[in-house]
Amino acid sequence: MRWLKQLLDFYINSSIHVALSVFAFVQMTGFLFRIEEVGVSAYFAFFGTIVGYNFVKYDALARTQKLQMRTELKAIATLSFLSFLAAGFYFLQLAQNTKIIAFAFLILTMLYTLPFFPNRKNARNWAGVKIYIVALCWVGVTLFLPLINAGIPLSIDIFVVAVQRFILIFVLILIFEIIDLQLDDPNLKTVPQQIGVERTKIVGSVLLLLFILLGFFQTDFSFTALFLRLGVAFTILLFLLFAHEKKSKYYSSFWVESIPILWWLSLLWFLNPS
Questions:
Q1: Long-range contacts of range 101-110, CB-CB < 8 Å, 24 or more positions apart?
Q2: How far is residue 268's CA from residue 270's CA, in Å, rounded to a whole number?
Q3: CA angle, 198 then 169 then 244, to 5°
Q4: Taking Cα atoms as reference points, which of 46, 115, 88, 73 lies closest to residue 260?
Q5: Half-sphere exposure of 198 (CA within 13 A, CB side)
Q6: ∠3-62-101 over CA atoms, to 5°?
Q7: What is the pTM of this model?
Q8: Per-residue pLDDT of the chain (274 residues; tens, 9 = 90+)
Q9: At CA 254, angle to CA 80 and CA 128, rounded to 5?
Q10: Cβ(10)–Cβ(45) under 8 Å?
């Protein structure tokens, strides 16, 4: 069974799993707003996430030569290069306006990783900023990018979904910050570092309640969709309440990041008329 654990670790460490979560969110956008051709945006987001996340995770270590190229890391580097080529292929198929949006989020990702300004750390180390940058990037790539590519004008429903998705991703990141509390640099000033674990869980619980309430402002309201949102919110709430610093890395990196995938599959199962 050792090879199975190694395969799972590679699946997680190479960012394939988080990329599937991004892919699921893009597909949900296509489903909710009836976008027939969402594939290009979804595949661009999938491969771009692998490149972006691996760049964020391994670039700093590689530049300081603290990263030894073990077999797994060589495989991750190869996967990242192939994903870069695939992301470039799908980027060229995006509409012109969408390319501008995609490029903007690329710059934000680089700003998040590289120290552009003299004598300053990268955005990842700016106190209290990390969680907002990550949530904003997810909303932009998984919601606005496919909508703009499909030429769909902004509406109240889009605004509501954007706020909902930002809240959802924000709470998911809170779970990661609780589990990584002992590992994170104190200067990061994550939410648990600033207000404590218990208050973080209260904040997350309130945000999940707001996530549910916002659903009533959508014009295309249905009780089935409400039921699914309740299920997702309750699942995240359980993961949030049971999160602590000694939890296994699989708790967040696999199970928590599986929630968007399960939500997308549930939407297809319960709401797809075919």
A1: 101/140, 101/144, 101/145, 101/148, 102/44, 102/48, 102/141, 102/145, 104/140, 105/137, 105/140, 105/141, 105/145, 106/52, 108/133, 108/136, 108/137, 109/52, 109/55, 109/56, 109/137
A2: 6
A3: 30
A4: 46
A5: 0
A6: 95
A7: 0.89
A8: 787 888 899 999 999 999 999 999 999 999 989 888 899 999 999 999 999 888 877 765 555 555 555 777 888 889 999 999 999 999 999 998 889 888 887 777 666 555 444 455 555 555 567 788 889 989 999 999 999 999 998 888 899 999 999 999 999 999 999 998 877 777 778 899 889 999 999 999 999 999 999 988 877 767 788 888 999 999 999 999 999 888 888 998 999 999 999 999 998 888 775 5
A9: 80
A10: no
- Report residue 3 as tokens: 């090879």
Identify the residue whose tokens are 């993961």: 239
In the block, tokens 């990268």 appear at 122
